[in-house]
């Protein structure tokens, strides 16, 4: 999922006018030489895009006309991997914006055509903003002479786009063609790199009926994108998007800043064509196969495999929660009721390479934190966990689900920021959970009853480091069912100040999950965030 980008403008079979080119702030000769085909200009504003989405929601859904299926089927994984957008056709490579823009090709796994528009006059109060569509041609791409993609007709559309990296940290990138920092590809999925320069989990424009019994999940598409040129020297790009699907339409504004990691401020309005049973707003999608918590014998040679290892929540009451992820025996939906949440996100906390031992660098995968802006009202942070037996499947979804039922004709307006970086942008002063480990319960040298499970939960942070010598924190534990025994806390014998663990045994019969809750305190004061865990006796029995 990586390529490069630059700027297009030219009328069909002719060159663009100098006036139109200068409106972009780009040299007319350079753009004309690119030989890019564009449409005639048309007026554009975000308000117009919102109104268009509203009107679409009152009409039946009509899928975008796709390229011939027989051709797309031949552009399989191997053929698609050999197609690269030509760097000399990338928008914004020479200005005025800070980041070159390139596009993804259609194929067997990316079939929905997406229309791309460049905006002229954006930010100019003296002239209306105009949009010119970039028309697809196969000569925009490098591909083998025998590629089936050559058979696609002109104007077939693109699959998605990405912005190229013009710098890494404080250093200018000598060859921006080799790096990108944000990509939109497939349905309403998009990704960004964090401060460790690595892709990982994805965000989505919206989630429709994820893991609803008896219903198939719906995947609405971003069908059109509009790109502002950007200001010289700026670290921000602005992109508008139109969303369309059988149950929903929407208009989006993304202001994406490349700084320490990537920050996106998103303003969106959604319109429902029909009822939705589970409407997921600000959703994130990730992969969790296994970690140090639970791993079957010989399942894989690596110690851990995951893009994210937990869900963090800073709820409206000010409590910081940490819920380690599971690879459950069946699809599980967990809900955390809240009002006015302060934030939530799928996080990758384990940053030790030796815990993964893999060249794909799971230890560098970004965390994704959702920061609500404005009044989100009442609802739930919902966590959906699906069973997986490989790392190729995204099996985790976290999202905000409003309390009120989502009915046809409803309108939603939402603002939030997405922070793609290694750590949460709003760290708690409390000690945080750094590991969850399960093993056989009971005592060494004595029979180990199969229904007893031992938990070791590790915390690290300044409040634990500040404890007087000889003082132990208290472990405050509760369980939805079963009994807790053999509870104690101790500093880890690793010489690291402020690194403690709480140990306890859980006795629980039956197959139903057990909800556990734990935090550390001293003299009535919480020292740690609250650890939540969903224990599945079936999985534990399989492993141990």
- In total, the number of strands is 36
The CATH first-level class of the domain at 432-543 comes to: Mainly Beta
Strand percentage lies at 35-45%
Rg (C-alpha, Å): 26 Å
Helix content: under 10%
The termini sit apart by 39 Å
**If you average the pLDDT, what whole number results?**
89
Number of helical segments with 4 or more residues: 7
Structural class: mainly beta
Given as residue ranges, the uncertain stretches (5+ residues, pLDDT < 50) are 1-33
Biggest sheet statistics: 16 strands, mixed
Second rung of CATH, namely the architecture of the domain at 432-543:
Sandwich
Going by CATH, the homologous superfamily of the domain at 432-543 would be Immunoglobulins
> In terms of quaternary structure, what is this?
single chain
The CATH topology of the domain at 432-543, please? Answer: Immunoglobulin-like
Tertiary shape:
elongated
Nutshell version of this structure?
The protein has 544 residues and is mostly beta strands.
What would you say this structure looks like, in words?
It is elongated and about 80 Å long. Helices cover 9% and strands 39% of the residues. It has a domain at 432-543: Immunoglobulins (Immunoglobulin-like). InterPro entries: Gal_mutarotase_sf_dom, GH-type_carb-bd, Glucan_biosyn_MdoG/MdoD, Glucan_biosyn_MdoG_C, Ig-like_fold, Ig_E-set, TAT_signal. It is found in: Periplasm.
List the main descriptive attributes of the protein structure presented here.
544 residues; mainly beta; Immunoglobulin-like; 16-stranded mixed sheet; 10-stranded antiparallel sheet; 7 helices; 39% strand; elongated
């Amino acid at each position: 999922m990586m390529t490069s980008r630059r700027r297009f403008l030219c009328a069909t079979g002719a060159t663009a006018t100098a006036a139109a080119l200068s409106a972009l702030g780009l040299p007319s000769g350079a753009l004309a030489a690119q030989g890019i085909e564009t449409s005639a200009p048309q007026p554009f504003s975000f308000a117009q895009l919102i109104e268009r989405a509203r009107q679409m929601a009152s009409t039946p859904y009509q899928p975008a006309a796709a390229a011939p299926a027989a051709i797309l089927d031949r552009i399989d994984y191997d053929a698609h991997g050999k197609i690269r957008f030509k760097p000399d056709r990338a928008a914004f490579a020479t200005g005025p914006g800070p980041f070159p823009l390139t596009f993804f090709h259609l194929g067997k796994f990316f079939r929905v055509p997406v229309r791309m528009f460049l905006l002229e006059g954006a930010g100019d109060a003296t002239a209306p903003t105009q949009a010119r569509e970039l028309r697809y041609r196969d000569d925009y791409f490098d591909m083998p002479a025998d590629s089936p993609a050559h058979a696609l007709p002109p104007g077939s559309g693109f699959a998605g786009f990405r912005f190229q990296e013009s710098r890494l940290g404080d250093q200018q990138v000598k060859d921006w063609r080799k790096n990108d920092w944000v990509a939109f590809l497939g349905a309403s999925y998009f990704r960004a790199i964090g401060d460790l320069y690595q892709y990982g989990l994805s965000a989505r424009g919206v989630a429709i009926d994820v893991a609803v019994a008896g219903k198939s999940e719906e995947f609405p598409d971003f069908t059109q994108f509009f790109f502002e040129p950007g200001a010289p020297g700026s670290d921000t790009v602005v992109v508008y998007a139109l969303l369309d699907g059988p149950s929903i339409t929407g208009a989006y504004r993304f202001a994406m800043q490349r700084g320490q990691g990537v920050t996106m401020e998103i303003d969106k309005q959604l319109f429902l064509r029909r009822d939705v049973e589970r409407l997921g707003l600000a959703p994130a999608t990730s992969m969790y196969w296994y970690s140090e918590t639970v791993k079957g014998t010989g399942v894989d040679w690596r110690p851990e495999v995951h893009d994210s290892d937990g869900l963090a929540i800073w709820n409206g009451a000010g409590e910081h929660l940490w819920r380690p992820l599971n690879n459950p025996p069946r699809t599980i939906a967990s809900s955390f009721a809240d009002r006015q949440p302060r934030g939530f996100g799928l996080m990758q906390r384990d940053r030790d390479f030796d815990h993964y031992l893999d060249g794909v660098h799971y230890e560098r995968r970004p965390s994704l934190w959702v920061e609500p802006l404005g009044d989100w009202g009442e609802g739930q942070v919902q966590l959906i966990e699906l069973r997986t037996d490989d790392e190729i499947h995204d099996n985790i979804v976290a999202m905000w689900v409003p309390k009120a039922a989502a009915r046809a004709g409803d309108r939603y307006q939402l603002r939030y920021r997405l922070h793609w970086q290694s750590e949460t942008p709003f760290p708690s002063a409390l000690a945080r959970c750094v590991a969850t480990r399960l093993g056989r319960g009971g005592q060494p040298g004595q029979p180990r009853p199969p229904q007893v499970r031992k938990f070791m939960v590790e915390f690290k942070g300044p409040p634990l480091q500040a404890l007087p010598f000889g003082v132990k924190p208290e472990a405050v534990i509760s369980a939805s069912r079963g009994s807790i025994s053999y509870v104690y806390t101790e500093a880890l014998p690793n010489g690291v100040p402020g690194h403690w663990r709480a140990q306890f045994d859980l006795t629980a019969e039956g197959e139903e999950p057990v909800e556990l809750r734990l935090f550390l305190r001293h003299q009535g004061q919480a020292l740690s965030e609250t650890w939540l865990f969903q224990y599945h006796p079936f999985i534990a029995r399989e492993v141990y």
